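User: Reviewer 2 asked us to show a designed sequence for the structure in our supplementary figure. I'm pasting the structure tokens here. Could you produce the per-position amino acids so we can include them in the response letter?
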């Protein structure tokens, strides 16, 4: 517990590329790296501070006796954290060969007797995760808004999984017109009608779907719905000429069964394939261009 009138700080440290070193150089060199990291950490902190290894490549530091003012305490903690960041960025000698590693760090201040160890660890871990997301080899402080954001995201993910099972998603259609303002097709836009949240914006749930892998089953649903819509349009003289475009995410396109899923959707609905348009983002071609080109050829 923090002494009356003082703050402390919990630093959560995770090595950015430890798994790569372990996998490529072996566990012996991985152990050497951990030992050197521990040695550098103990040299960066003061005598009253505590250094511990949680397991794997995760370390925790507890800084005590910081200023009573939260802002001043945060500045003190940042000075030490920056010192640690610089120290852990120095090259490591593993069996006589030089290697580099860097840390991501999360910092949680404490000074309230109500703060439990588990809660402080959770806060520092969340801040460390934010450092990972924002580029690694950096540090981030925890704040209540960050935790609320994480909890809201987890709730949205759980609801989206249920939403896919409960057919809460719907397709809206944005017209595509030619130079004479004649409607020649449409673009399918996915929307989520949640029973409690109401209409959820794609700007809120698409990023969550991409981060969790739900974008793959979501994309499969959109593909199937688009093909069924084109089948319905084919039976209406006013709509039979229309094409329908759907957006394909990079993760969905790279999934192993994507081409087969397209084939099956086309075969099951017996639509004219030329009426279905698959739209890909240009950034997809930055990686594995040959593999992507081959998939496009198959499609």
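Assistant: Here is a per-position design you can include in the supplement:
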């Amino acid at each position: 517990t923090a002494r009356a009138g003082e703050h402390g700080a919990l630093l959560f440290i995770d090595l950015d590329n430890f798994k790569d070193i372990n996998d490529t150089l072996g566990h012996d060199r991985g152990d050497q790296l951990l030992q050197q990291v521990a040695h550098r950490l103990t040299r960066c902190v003061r005598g009253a501070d505590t250094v511990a290894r949680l397991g794997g490549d995760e370390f925790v530091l507890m800084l005590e006796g910081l200023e009573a003012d939260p802002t001043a305490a945060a500045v003190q903690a940042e000075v030490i954290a920056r010192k640690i960041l610089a120290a852990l960025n120095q090259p490591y000698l593993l069996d006589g060969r030089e290697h580099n590693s860097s840390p991501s760090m999360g910092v949680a201040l404490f000074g309230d007797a109500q703060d439990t160890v588990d809660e402080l660890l959770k806060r520092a871990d969340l801040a460390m995760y934010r450092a990972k997301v924002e580029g690694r080899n950096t540090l981030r402080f925890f704040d209540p808004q960050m935790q609320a954001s994480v909890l809201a995201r987890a709730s949205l993910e759980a609801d989206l999984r249920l939403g896919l099972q409960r057919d809460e998603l719907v397709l809206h259609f944005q017209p595509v017109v030619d130079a004479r303002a004649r409607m020649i097709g449409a673009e399918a836009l996915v929307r989520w009608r949640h029973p409690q949240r109401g209409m959820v914006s794609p700007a809120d749930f698409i990023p969550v779907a991409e981060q969790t892998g739900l974008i793959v089953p979501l994309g499969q649903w959109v593909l199937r719905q688009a093909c069924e819509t084109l089948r319905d349009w084919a039976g209406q003289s006013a709509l039979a000429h229309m094409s329908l475009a759907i957006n394909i995410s990079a993760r969905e396109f790279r999934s192993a069964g994507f081409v087969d899923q397209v084939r099956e959707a086309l075969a099951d609905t017996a639509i004219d394939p030329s009426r279905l348009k698959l739209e890909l983002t240009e950034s997809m071609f930055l990686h594995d261009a040959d593999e992507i080109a081959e998939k496009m050829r198959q499609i």
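For the response letter, you might also mention the following. The longest helix spans residues 144-165. The chain has ten helices and twelve strands.
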